[in-house]
């Protein structure tokens, strides 16, 4: 019951927010649900699913409750089945998809050679891809993990960093190292890096290679140029799998010509390539992050609509000017308006 309700009954409050017309009362090992019949039935179904997840050893958080309620509301199956399967377990912590979108993303990685995970910050794009990479290495499905990302500054100039080339590029790759240390024994990671079993490198290091029997993750792909994206994808060798992650709303390239944005049009519909599009519903950070993502998305849509209106108005003005110019040209022709 303690694990079901959460610390200070936090999860109980989350369930109540999902069903505003339902009252929940916990006493000992009993949970009483009262309110409108259909809402009580829906709340009961959700709580039964959460109980199964707790019994299976899953630690619940508000995100799990919200995602489970959404799955049941949409009729997409059993949350305990969809979200209950762990990708891997490290130091007592299980890594598993927490939303339906994340589950579909993970399944797509199993079923396709190249998967693009596109979505806003906090949707688990890179984290889940790296978990699948570590799982594939542990199962001996691949011989190596290669993690890469473009070395592009996010809106600030880092200047001339001190140290060797490795020291200079390390800040760009640090998020990948951090995730790797969470998923594997930190004492083993340096040995795997030294042996080349795990490689973390900037995207520029991929040129000229053909990579076989590897799980390759390209992070922050929105900051690749079209040429870099083509170069990366053509590194694919036999027995390898690629996952490309990025957020096309956070492009830091000076030109704005993103290889990730272009590839969604060029490769869409090709067999064995899948585009997984995650949304604010799949954000598993603080609940505010989802609302921030939605607010920025709405703002961007408004700006695009305003830009479109300006372009249409300018085009209309240009057409009117061309017609006026043609009319003036006709009126200035020799003999126009004179009788012989």
Strand order of the largest sheet: 7-6-8-9-5-10
In which range does the helix fraction lie?
A: 40-55%
Major sheet attributes: 6 strands, parallel
Number of helices: 12
**SSE order:** HHEEHHHEEHEHEHHEEHEHEH
Instruction: Give the radius of gyration.
Output: 27 Å
Gap between N and C termini? 105 Å
How would you classify the quaternary structure?
single chain
Strand content: 5-15%
What structural class results from the helix and strand content?
alpha/beta
User: What's the mean pLDDT score?
Assistant: 83
**Can you tell me the overall shape?**
flat
Stretches where pLDDT falls below 50 for ≥5 residues? 154-158
Number of beta strands? 10
Which properties best describe this structure?
340 residues; two-stranded antiparallel sheet; 6-stranded parallel β-sheet; 12 helices; alpha/beta
């Amino acid at each position: 019951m303690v694990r079901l309700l959460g610390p200070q009954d936090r999860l109980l409050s989350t369930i109540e927010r999902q069903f505003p017309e339902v009252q929940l009362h916990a006493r000992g090992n009993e949970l009483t649900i009262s309110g409108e019949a259909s809402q009580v039935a829906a709340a009961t179904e959700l709580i039964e699913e959460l109980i199964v997840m707790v019994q299976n050893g899953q630690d619940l958080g508000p995100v799990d409750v919200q995602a489970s309620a959404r799955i049941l509301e949409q009729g997409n199956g059993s949350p305990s089945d969809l979200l209950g399967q762990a990708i891997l377990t490290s130091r007592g912590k299980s890594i598993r998809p927490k939303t339906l979108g994340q589950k579909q993303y993970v399944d797509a990685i199993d079923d396709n050679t190249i998967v693009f995970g596109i979505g806003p910050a906090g949707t688990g794009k890179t984290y889940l891809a790296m978990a699948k990479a570590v799982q594939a290495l542990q199962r001996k499905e691949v011989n190596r993990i290669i993690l890469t990302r473009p070395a592009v500054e996010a809106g600030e100039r880092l200047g001339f960093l001190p140290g060797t080339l490795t020291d200079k590029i390390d800040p760009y790759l640090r998020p990948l190292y951090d995730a790797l240390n969470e998923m594997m024994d930190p004492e083993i990671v340096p040995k795997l890096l030294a042996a080349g079993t795990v490689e973390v490198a900037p995207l520029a290091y991929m040129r000229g290679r053909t990579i076989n029997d590897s799980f390759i993750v390209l992070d922050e792909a929105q900051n690749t140029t079209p040429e870099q994206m083509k170069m990366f994808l053509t590194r694919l060798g036999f027995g390898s799998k690629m996952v490309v992650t990025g957020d096309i709303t956070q492009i830091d390239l000076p030109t704005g010509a993103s290889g990730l944005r272009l590839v969604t049009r060029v490769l869409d519909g090709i067999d064995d390539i899948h585009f997984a599009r995650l949304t604010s519903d799949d954000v598993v950070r603080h609940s505010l992050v989802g609302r921030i993502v939605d607010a920025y998305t709405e703002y961007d849509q408004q700006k695009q609509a305003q830009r479109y209106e300006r372009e249409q108005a300018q085009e209309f003005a240009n057409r009117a000017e061309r017609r006026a110019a043609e009319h003036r040209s006709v009126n200035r022709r020799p003999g126009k308006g004179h009788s012989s």
